[in-house]
């Protein structure tokens, strides 16, 4: 178990274990040591979750996991601390330097799954907040973490996006968990869901309509 030694580590640990988050009164630099400790913690968490989706082709991606945690942490702090921060948004919410693949998507999701709630709070406070646009862009790129949050995913090629069987299974499961109608009613995804539900569609999601290209 990771001991809480810093605002960054304490925040991530608390969120992962209790679903709550501590917001501190000042923004602090995240040290390399903290990043390393967070990376080791997330590796353990990833291995726990990986027991549910054993796949030789999916592995822990530390850079993506730590990046996702930094995005989440700074986004939460910026909800309360905004004085003189506009010029530093790109530094506080950095871009991931690697191209997303299934491993990096699932590694970043250890933290990014909590980002939609923070984005919603920020948007409610100020719809024109530039931080909201930055976070929505991240969620659009890592939309597995944004399932249930309204995103513009019209450009996604779903057959290509969900070609990995394990990722497809996880994606469908989260759609059902979040009751994400906007995604579930996309014809291709709807077809996949109906195939998964089989004869038990009424049990899994009674209200979901069966969609075809014709009644789209």
Structure in words:
The chain contains twelve helices and no strands. The protein starts with 6 loop residues before the first helix and ends in an 11-residue tail after the last helix. The model has no long low-confidence stretch (mean pLDDT 90). The chain is 58% helix and 0% strand. The chain is mainly α.
How are the elements arranged and paired?
Blueprint: H1 7-18, H2 32-50, H3 62-80, H4 89-92, H5 102-112, H6 115-125, H7 130-141, H8 158-161, H9 165-178, H10 181-184, H11 187-197, H12 201-205
Summarize the entry for a quick read.
The chain is mostly helical and 216 residues long. The protein has 12 helices and no strands.
Task: Give the key terms.
216 residues, mainly alpha, 12 helices, globular
